Amino acid sequence: MGYVNWKGGLLMRILLTGGAGYIGSHVVKLLAKKGYEVLVIDNLSTGHKEAVIYGKLEVVDLKEKEKLSELIKEFKPDAVMHFAASIEVEESVRNPTKYYRNNTVNTLNLLEAMIENGVKFFIFSSTAAVYGIPEEIPIREDASLRPINPYGKSKAFVEEILKDFDSAYGLKYISLRYFNVAGADPEGELGQSYKKATHLITRALKTAKGEFDKLYIFGTDYPTPDGTAIRDYIHVMDLAEAHILALEYLLENKKSDIFNLGYGHGYSVREVVDIVKRVTGIDFPVEETARRPGDPPVLIADSSKAKSVLNWNPKYDNLGFIIKTAWNWELNRRY
Ligand code: UFG
Asked: By residue range, what is the domain housing residue 176?
């Protein structure tokens, strides 16, 4: 596994799908800083080649299974980290085919190509959306999976496939269930750059910037203190750090596992809007409207498992700071 690098340590090769995208690009940066050799594969459908500044990029679509297998054979990765996916809850309700193809079928292609070439370690970008409307808040990893939208289902199916691949082929994986990822690289090199910008914080910042006339609040009749939905917002660099810890844990312990990644407390949509207005100093127009289909009322992580097992120690648990890094990126975007 790997070969000796100039520091005398083992240089690991990581194949990372979706590395030109928002979260993947931040993970590539951390991996490269820690001395990993990274090959990014991305179809650039929502990613940006400018975001791949710390690894090599191959433009490939995960539906091209033969090509994937060839790349894996050639690069010989020690592990695969899989970020490439479609990620919008509302779109998944309108267009489930896209989600089952991109998220479920394409992941199966990738896993098959790995097994064909003897690659046995896999880090999977899962989501809090697999829980649906949880029975208990905060949500623990052993809560039942009852996704309420095709996006959540497309990822929950992969988690089922992973269990079977572990039993049948000895694939060892870690599935990371992300809560609401936000913010940007505090060094300003990377951030979210997505044409449609449907996520709350990005949408609010673009409204503050004048790119949209107003921000819509989707639903004010949720069973929450102010009637708007509550989410656990986690800074993308804390999330990225957890990936490195998960990878190291997996390579060392060779044991499959699942971890939630969030801070364990939430903010309502109204609270987020207030903080965006305070951080930007801009009082943009807001309009209350109906609920968005597929949205659960409250998602808050219990991440004590990631803290105790992976020694994850998040640094940026401060929504004002998260929004500030995203605002800084929005004002000084490289791509
Ligand atoms: N919202 C608005 N107005 C907007 C955008 C969003 O009111 O313009 C609301 C949404 O209805 C929701 C909340 O803000 O209640 C957060 O919405 P986002 O679109 O920012 O994020 P989601 O919670 O829908 O989804 C995100 C990721 C998923 C992940 C989920 C886990 O996109 O991949 O977080 O919590 F599964």
From this structure: 13-185+233-262
CA-232 nearest atom, ligand 1 = 35
The pLDDT tens digits of the residues spanning 199-235 come to 999 999 999 999 999 999 999 999 999 999 999 999 9
What pLDDT is attached to residue 6?
Answer: 42
Assigned domain for 96 exists: yes
Burial of 11 (0-12, 13-18, 19+ CB in 10 A): middle
Q: Is the pLDDT of residue 4 over 50?
A: no
Instruction: Please give the number of the atom of ligand 1 that sits closest to the Cα of 292.
Output: 11
Which CATH number does the domain housing residue 145 bear?
A: 3.40.50.720
d(CA 68, CA 12): 19
Over the range 234-250, which residues count as b (16 or more CB within 10 Å of their CB) and which as e?
A: bbbbbbbbbbbbbbebb
Report yes or no on 2 lying in a domain.
no
- Decide whether any atom of ligand 1 lies within 6 Å of the 295 Cβ: yes
Torsion angle in degrees (nearest 10) through CA of 304, 306, 311, 314? -80
* 22-26, 188-192, 195-199: least confidently modelled range: 195-199
The domain tally of the chain equals: 1
Residue 131, CA distances (Å) to 18, 157, 161, 178, 298 in order: 24, 12, 17, 11, 11
User: How far does the centroid of ligand 1 lie from the alpha carbon of residue 153, in Å?
Assistant: 16
Q: pLDDT (tens digit, 9 = 90+) per residue, 279-295?
A: 999 999 999 999 998 89
Q: Is 151 designated active site?
A: yes
Distance 89 CA to ligand 1 centre (A): 8
**Closest-lying ligand 1 atom to the alpha carbon of residue 87:** 33
Per annotation, catalytic residue among 151, 233, 263, 316:
151
> Is position 27 within any domain?
yes
